[in-house]
Amino acid sequence: MKHIVVLSGAGISAESGLQTFRDADGLWNGYEITEVATPGAWKRNPALVLDFYNMRRQNVLGAEPNQAHRLLADLEQQYKVTIITQNIDDLHERAGSTNILHLHGEILKMRSEKDESLVYDIRGDIHLGNTAADGAQLRPHIVWFEEAVPMIEPAIGVMQTADIFIIIGTSLAVYPAAGLGQYAFNATEKYIIDKRIPSEVNLKGYEAIEATATAGMEILHKKLMK
Length: 226
Hints:
By secondary structure, this protein is of the alpha/beta class. The chain folds into 2 domains: 1-18 and 65-104 and 149-226, Rossmann fold; 20-62 and 110-142, 2-Layer Sandwich (SIR2/SIRT2 'Small Domain'), CATH 3.30.1600.10. It is 29% helix and 21% strand. It has 8 helices and 9 strands. The protein has helices at 10-14, 33-36, 39-44, 46-62, 67-74, 91-95, 152-159, 213-224, and strands at residues 3-8, 80-85, 100-102, 105-112, 119-121, 138-142, 164-168, 189-194, 206-210. The chain has a 6-stranded parallel β-sheet, sandwiched between helices. Strands 5-4-6 form a 3-stranded antiparallel β-sheet, with helices on one face. β4 and β5 form a beta hairpin.
């Protein structure tokens, strides 16, 4: 059975109504990234950071998977599929995909600010004073800017087993995720789906489908599920 590896980004979740990571104004839900998505922001104003992610958590819980998510899940009928996602939502899971690697963490989880192994599920809000088993404050289980990406090494290993590689809904601007394509072998079939294919990125060897995530996946699904 051939192995499809997918790298998904904010563009696929945008069609479910979730705001993309960076809008044209450089803000994220009206916040500067440095105010809410760095270790420094957490030290300066943890209440603001918690409020921001509490809001995002409720946005995710109110969203539904779209056709692109569902078509990726449907590929499991004929292929082994691994999804490497930059997204922190659970829309791939809810669409039915069974093998998902979250590079940047998960909004529906929280962890100790001291011990990264103490991770818990969360559907409501995290408040100041909520503590993990080690007594430390709980924080979102999110990889912030300036933090290491612990899942990047497993993701590289997955890339090296890909027969087919699909990039969908990502600007390829956030590293190290944007560099994962270099670990695919030359013989790997490669596709990129985005409504604005980034011209500054070397996509030699890729078949480009310049379309929304849903429209692009409808095209690619038909091709792969012959």
